[in-house]
C-alpha cells in the first residue's frame, strides 16, 4: 500500500526574474502546470515587488512529484538529507530546499540560497518512526 503524501511548494520570484522560466522549469522537471500554483504579489524588505508562488499537491500529483524528486536528486544529496534527517523533520513533515537556479537549468539539487521550499507530509503516528518513514521515501522503497 502506498503512503498518503502531500507536497507543499513555495518559491519567491524576484522582480528581476521571469516567472515564466520558473513555470517552464516546473513543467519540464515535475510536469506541473501554471494552474497548479497560486500567485501572490508582495513587497520585499526595500519595498521591492516579489511574487510568491505556492502549490499544494495531493494524491497522484504528490506521489509523482516525490518520485521525480527522488529519482532526479543526486545520491550525495540523498545522503546529505539522510545524515541530518532528524533536523529536517517536524510534525510528520520533511522540509527540503532545492536550488531555484538548478531547477531552471532542469536539475534537482539541494540549495539554501534563493531556494524552492518543499514540505513533504505523510501521516506518521509515532515520532520514532518519522526518520525511518522518510528514509524509505528518499530511498524510493515506498
UniProtKB/TrEMBL annotation:
Please name the Gene3D superfamilies in this protein's record.
3.30.1440.10
Q: Which SUPFAM superfamilies match?
A: RL5-like
Q: Which Pfam families match?
A: RNA_binding
Official protein name in the record: Exosome protein
Amino acid at each position: 500500500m502506498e503512503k498518503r503524501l502531500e507536497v507543499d511548494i513555495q518559491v519567491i520570484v524576484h522582480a528581476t526574474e521571469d516567472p515564466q522560466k520558473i513555470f517552464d522549469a516546473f513543467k519540464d522537471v515535475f510536469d506541473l502546470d501554471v494552474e497548479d500554483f497560486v500567485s501572490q504579489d508582495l513587497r520585499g524588505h526595500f519595498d521591492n515587488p516579489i511574487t510568491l508562488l505556492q502549490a499544494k499537491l495531493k494524491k497522484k500529483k504528490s506521489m509523482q512529484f516525490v518520485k521525480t524528486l527522488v529519482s532526479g536528486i543526486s545520491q550525495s544529496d540523498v545522503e546529505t538529507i539522510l545524515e541530518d534527517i532528524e533536523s529536517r523533520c517536524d510534525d510528520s513533515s520533511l522540509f527540503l530546499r532545492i536550488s531555484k537556479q538548478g531547477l531552471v537549468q532542469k536539475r534537482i539539487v539541494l540549495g539554501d540560497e534563493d531556494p524552492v521550499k518543499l514540505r513533504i507530509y505523510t501521516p506518521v503516528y509515532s515520532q520514532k518512526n518519522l526518520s525511518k518513514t522518510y528514509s524509505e521515501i528518499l530511498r524510493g522503497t515506498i
